[in-house]
Hpt domain-containing protein
Amino acid sequence: MSFLEEICLQADIDYKECMMRLGNNEMLVKRFLKKFLEDRSYEELEKAWQAQDVDGVVRHAHTLKGVSANLGMKKLTAACDGLVKAGRQGGLDKNCYQEVGVQYRKICDSVAEL
């Protein structure tokens, strides 16, 4: 198992899916995972949540959902999807928000080792 596979396993990232989406190029996968750490969607989501801005939560959760889906981050994608669905129904789902935070930190902590 490669170091990248170990990082993906630790972060609950679907290594095979991520590799497939990025042309089976490990260097490209590493580059995109490192860029994920620079993405500000989660930070903006936190701000929107604190302000109880439902539209902002939906917008930033949807962005984070797309980014995470493209990188095989299935648990983060699912949690973001829950936030988006709740927001589109006019509410905020605290459990989904907390799960987004747990998954996001888990991924960032693991990917930071690359």
Notes: The first helix runs from residue 3 to 10.
